[in-house]
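re: the backbone from monday

yeah here it is again, tokenized this time
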């Protein structure tokens, strides 16, 4: 074989090796999804609508969550929070969540008077105030949650109260937005429908999260999901075709 022919063979061989290496690296990156567990398409859709803050950045906890119920909670309120914690334990991956008597980094305050609640909510909301809110504190670079204060209004009464508590826990865990989409099953952050009033009342008063909320939380707290990631970068590492 002539020298020029041998050189050509070497060039082709190197090109094939580089192509194969590039394919391997690309394929490796593609399968290293931020969601290593199976999920439903509507769970991913729901997650992408409610998790990125202002539609841009995912911000979540990267340390254990210590829930503290502040003085003044009724036995039912305390039981509701405890049930929520138990519900969240298997969903949050490596992040441990527990109830503590003091020095919590996620406090839950059941305010007794509406006047006190309005004073606490003053400056947080532009117009009026909802029946509860979750006020987060981020680290210096706004890449992770350091602590959250959940405050529940006394106007959150009856079966609605349970829904408000769970809704604010959703915000406290990293659901920053509300979905404008309509879902034909219950969820905390979007529009939903119920087959009858009895089903709606039962769900509102329940301490349990639904499939959509559990699915979105499982995606958010998947061990492969970075603590802080932009929406654009996130879309490169997840498979939305499933």
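seq for it, each position gets an aa:
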């Amino acid at each position: 074989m002539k020298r020029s022919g041998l050189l050509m063979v070497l060039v082709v061989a190197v090109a094939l090796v580089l192509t194969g290496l590039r394919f391997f690296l690309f394929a490796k990156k593609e399968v290293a999804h931020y969601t290593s567990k199976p999920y439903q398409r509507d769970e991913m859709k729901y997650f992408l609508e409610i998790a990125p803050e202002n539609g841009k950045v995912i911000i979540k906890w990267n340390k254990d969550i210590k829930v503290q119920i502040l003085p003044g909670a009724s036995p039912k309120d305390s039981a509701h929070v405890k049930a929520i914690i138990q519900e969240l334990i298997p969903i949050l991956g490596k992040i441990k969540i527990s109830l503590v008597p003091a020095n919590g980094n996620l406090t839950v305050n059941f305010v007794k008077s509406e006047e006190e609640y309005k004073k606490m909510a003053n400056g947080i909301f532009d117009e009026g105030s909802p029946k509860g809110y979750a006020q987060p504190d981020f680290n210096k670079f706004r890449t992770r949650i350091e602590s959250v204060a959940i405050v529940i209004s006394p106007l959150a009464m009856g079966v609605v109260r349970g829904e408000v508590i769970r809704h604010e826990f959703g915000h406290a865990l990293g659901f920053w937005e509300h979905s404008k989409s309509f879902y034909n099953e219950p969820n905390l952050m979007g529009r939903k429908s119920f087959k009858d009033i009895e089903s709606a009342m039962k769900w509102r008063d329940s301490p349990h999260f639904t499939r959509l909320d559990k699915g979105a939380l499982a995606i958010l707290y998947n061990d492969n999901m970075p603590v802080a990631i932009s929406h654009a970068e996130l879309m490169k590492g997840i498979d939305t075709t499933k």
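The longest strand covers residues 145-152. Residues 32-236 form a domain with the Collagenase (Catalytic Domain) fold (CATH 3.40.390.10).
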